[in-house]
């Protein structure tokens, strides 16, 4: 799936939060949205997901406007995982993940063998098999996040939008999740705070500041000391770690 964002703006009365953003995400590409709090990453993702209506511009999926899709069609083609997703239900983990199969079934048909196989694979991929029968209310924050990620995988969509998906996850599961995002054939747009994870696993980084895109390209071209000083107000050093991955070291905040 190709995603095109064309001159997109969105805001609330009296304040523009996303301003004239344009970007093209190629099929199968993993694009990381980075930037400080309040830069517009989450708002942009929600517009791309069709959950907010832009005040200007448009979003195209394989050349088609998202407004032409029904909610069911959108859920078949696109999965969205929020920063924090909660529910008051008493569903078990496997039942939450099975919700990802709902768009692919008729209203009158229950899950079949293929649905159960897909859910089992998603549970394995997110290290949740042992928790399949655990009630949602008994899960930790990280386990809940992994459950919603598994649900998104079970949707089997061409596009995957992730808003701070590593929140609440321990280091191991952060690495596994980002490895998944970087290796899946799906088109992925992921908002991240961790610049090292973004640099390591994303094909391309889009740096946002005050609602606008200020840099777009390879990690080595986007994560530069001058840009980090301008956008994040920190003095930084860019280098390589022992494994050869791009590393960002912070010396001190910028005093303005």
Strand and helix map with partners:
Elements: E1 3-12, E2 15-25, E3 30-34, H1 41-48, E4 56-61, E5 64-65, H2 71-77, E6 78-81, H3 93-98, H4 113-125, H5 141-154, E7 159-163, H6 171-183, E8 187-191, H7 195-201, E9 204-209, E10 212-217, H8 219-222, H9 225-232, E11 234-240, E12 246-253
Parallel strand pairs: 3-8, 3-9, 6-7, 7-8
Antiparallel strand pairs: 1-2, 1-4, 4-5, 9-10, 11-12
Helix pairs in contact: 4-5
Protein name: Iron complex transport system ATP-binding protein
Pfam families: ABC_tran
Keywords: ATP-binding, Nucleotide-binding, Transport
Molecular structure report:
There is one protein chain. The protein has one domain: Rossmann fold (3-Layer(aba) Sandwich), CATH 3.40.50.300. Strand 7 (159-163), helix 6 and strand 8 (187-191) form a beta-alpha-beta unit. It is globular, with a radius of gyration of 19 Å. With 256 residues, the chain is an alpha/beta fold. Helices cover 31% and strands 29% of the residues. This is Iron complex transport system ATP-binding protein. Keywords: ATP-binding, Nucleotide-binding, Transport. InterPro entries: AAA+_ATPase, ABC_transporter-like_ATP-bd, P-loop_NTPase. One of its GO terms (molecular function) is ATP hydrolysis activity. It comes from Lentzea albida.
